[in-house]
Structure formats: C-alpha cells, structure tokens
Write a structure and sequence with these properties.
It is built from 14 helices and seven strands. The protein has a five-stranded mixed beta sheet with strand order 3-5-4-6-7. Strand 6 and strand 7 form a beta hairpin. It starts with 5 loop residues before the first helix and ends with a helix.
Length: 327
C-alpha cells in the first residue's frame, strides 16, 4: 500500500542537512540537494533499481549471444542452427495433462471459456515457457564450458536488523529484512510467498521483521506493540502468524490471540499498557524511511530492495543471484 512522500519531505527539509549544493532559496531559507535527495530517497532508489534491471536485462542478452556464438563456432554451425538443435528441438510438446492443469488453475481469468476455445493460447503459453526454461538451462551449461564473470552489481541499501525479531542462522548467506504493517492487505497477501521462500531455502535465510505501521491504519501500531510484547515471552513468531491471518485487530482479539499461543496474559497486558516498545517501533519507522521505504510491504534481500507484494519468482531471482555471487 503506497503513501505520499509528504512525511519524508518534512523530515528532509527539517533535518538540518549538511551544507551542500543549493537548489532553491525561499526568502532566507536555502534548500540543498542533500535535502531534496533525502526527501526523494524512495523514488530515487526505485529508479536506480529499474535502471539496474534494464542494464542487467541487456547484459544477459549480450552474454547469452556471446555464449551461443562461441559454441556455434566450435561446432561449425550458425547460431540459428545451434538454437534450433539445442533449444527448439529439445522442447517437448505440452501434454494434455499440462494443458488441463493450466486451464483449471486459471478458470477465473478465462471467465468460463471452454477448454477447446482457449487451448491454442494455452499451448502457445506452455511452449514459450518450455522454450525459456530450456534456453536458461542451456545457457547455464555453456557458462560452465566458457567461464563467465559478471561484474555488474545490484544497488543495495545498508539496513540493520537492530532489535528486530529474527529467525534463521546468523551465518546464513541471505538476510531478508521485511518492513511491514499488520493491517496492510498487501502484507497479508504476500505472507504465503514469504513462507514459501523460507521453506524452500531453509537455513540459507536469516529473516527479520521490522514494524512499519502506516499512520492511516489505526490498528497497525497497537498490533506491532502487542507483537513485541509477545516477543518478550519468546512467542513472537506464532503470535506474528496469528496477527497476519487476523481480520480483527481489536484490543480484545489481540489479547485472545495472546492466550491462544500460550502467552502469560498478565505480563502481556502490562507490557502492552506500558508501551515499553514504542521507541523500538519509532526506530523501525525511521530506519525504513532512511532506507527509502514509502509503503508496505518492503523487503531488503542482502540490502537489495524489493518493493510491494511481489511473486515468489522475484524473491527467487534475487536470492539465486546473491547465492551465486557468494559461491
């Protein structure tokens, strides 16, 4: 869920940034480039990520062509012939079972259209998918034959785990930090994907949760406070799971969920009432703003920002790149 940059703008203009290049004067006040770039940090981070993705996409194309070109020369054939033999001819035709599965999985989008009507499009989709998978596999094979080094680095942001609840080994090669809001529908939507990532990569992931309650979600901050009180009793993750799944974040239900996961209610209620973790939540908000977060959910995978409720494949792409870089 997106929010405007007004809050960040106010922070940037009042933060007393160091003297730098002046971009505007208003009466006796000077607005510097540092202040503007601080206020626009999230937008600039997004642009930098988009630029990286464009450059990486073109680099991948050129690397693939160079690999195909060298292999074609070694085999004494054209690139076109190599592609036909190693890619096109090795992609099997979709089976009836595969076609049926795609049809069944997408009935809502197909709006009740009969299978025979949409079968050609499904076959085309599966054929393209198979072609892409085979091409990626063949490129991986060629990279082993023709050593390939990629110097391009993804933009990263230095984000600390700080006092956040954490699971996974401290020496895991991948650290994922999520900034999230318990009332945010997009945060709830991405949770199954997060669980899929944690299940698939296991001990390769160290996962931390930082609170970013949006100001227009009245129940988000009380829920964040309650979660940290649960963490004090070693029950953060089961309580967190309850919060993510809940549609009712009223005070009464926060208490009921605490009882459901075996939390000492007396200590929990005292903790919530004291708001002893308010400073932790404020620190999370500040850290998120400084990292360029302007909405939830936002993830940092080894410092690489992934904004919004992205599909598993986007997490997988970054994680695999990071694992490859560490191998």
């Amino acid at each position: 869920m997106r929010i405007t940059a007004i809050a960040l703008l106010a922070i940037g203009l009042s933060a007393g940034a160091a003297v730098a290049e002046p971009l505007a004067t208003v009466g006796n006040k000077t607005i510097t480039r540092d202040q503007v770039e601080t206020a626009a940090k999230s937008e600039l981070a997004e642009i930098e990520t988009q630029r990286y993705e464009v450059v990486k996409g073109k680099l991948d194309e050129l690397v693939a062509f160079a690999l195909f070109e060298q292999e074609a020369t070694a085999k004494g054939v054209t690139v076109e012939k190599l592609t036909e033999v190693e890619i096109v001819e090795k992609v099997k035709k979709p089976t009836d079972a595969e076609i049926q599965k795609v049809y069944d999985d997408n009935k809502d989008q197909l709006q009740g259209a009969p299978l025979e009507t949409v079968k050609p499009q499904i076959v085309e989709y599966l054929s393209r998918k198979g072609m892409g998978e085979r091409q990626n596999a063949y490129i991986a094979e060629l990279k082993k034959k023709y050593p390939t080094k990629i110097a391009l680095k993804a933009p990263t942001v230095d984000v600390a785990i700080a006092d956040a609840p954490v699971k996974g080994p401290a020496n895991a090669p991948i650290t994922i930090i999520e900034f999230s809001d318990y009332e945010c529908p997009f945060c709830k939507k991405v949770e199954p994907t997060v669980q899929q990532v944690l299940k698939q990569y296991g001990d390769k992931i160290r996962f931390a949760y930082r609170n970013y309650p949006l100001p227009f979600h009245q129940s988000a901050r009380p829920a964040a406070v309650a979660a940290l009180c649960a963490n004090e009793q070693g029950k953060f993750w089961p309580y967190h799971d309850k919060l993510v799944a809940a549609s009712d974040l009223s005070a009464a239900n926060l208490q009921q969920m605490a009882s459901d996961v075996g939390i000492d209610r007396k200590k929990f209620d005292e903790c919530v009432k004291s708001e002893k973790f308010a400073a932790v939540i404020d620190a999370d908000l500040k850290a998120g703003q400084e990292a360029g977060v302007n909405g939830t959910p936002a993830f940092f995978i080894n410092g690489r920002m992934l904004d919004g409720a992205q599909p598993f494949e986007k997490f997988q792409e970054i994680i695999e790149e990071e694992l490859a870089a560490k191998s």
